[in-house]
Amino acid sequence: MDVDGIYIFKADAGTTLYSRRTKNVHEDLFSAFLTALQGFFSDFALGGLSSFTSDNYMIYLASSNNVLTSLIINKEQKSDKYYNLAFEISCQFYTEFKTTIDNPISLTLPNKNQVDSILESVFEEFEKLSEVQQEIVKLYEIDAQGELAIFDYINEEQLYNLSLFVAVNFVTKQIYVIENVEEGVSSRKLFLANKSVTNLNQREFKSQFTIRNVSDPWDFERVVEQVSNLLSKDAIKKLEI
After folding, report:
1. CA-based Rg of the chain, rounded to a whole angstrom?
2. For the segment 127-169, what is each residue's pLDDT rounded down to a tens digit?
3. Residue 186: CB partners within 8 Å, gap ≥ 6?
4. Which of 129, 131, 209, 218 is nearest to 166 (CA)?
5. Whole-model pTM?
6. Among the CATH numbers 3.40.20.10, 3.55.10.10, 3.40.50.10490, 3.40.250.10, which is that of 135-240?
């Protein structure tokens, strides 16, 4: 896992519960990072996701149950998947150290070796989940030139916020060009998207997949729900069994 630094905080107080640097990240980054983070504590105590950048790094933040996790990633490795990973770490950390987190009076820091072991398990499970997801559905964003770029699934709301994306369903062998008409998509971009998808189908899948355009609001919701259900943890666990 390409993570340059991990910090776990008690969100309401900003207390550092765990930290680990896996690479030689400049100390000034951490100083600026900790200062900027103070303004996020009150918001993240209620839950949420965010990120900010330095010259060389992306800092991803996610909280759950008063645990705030920050992952520091090299900008070259930028990916939305790190939101999910940070959230998973927060959830697992709270599960393991609930008594410590919920204690408003005193705070006993968790054993570092124990946290290291938990993190390795989370990383391993996360990588496995990501690999299985790619074997079920691949998602592509489309730029102004119609070029396709794979992106990682976070949640259903993420898909609703996209004006146009492509979902390749390996279960049903269908490629969906999904247009959110409420967001507005130019006819040129839609044309380029279909052209790129046709090329993708020929190049990667030997034209064995059926291409479908989805623009009707009801169909849009149905396909987004289908994709989200396929990529849910529960569905993937059932497939693994």
Report:
1. 20
2. 777 777 677 888 999 887 888 988 888 778 888 888 899 999 8
3. none
4. 209
5. 0.63
6. 3.40.20.10
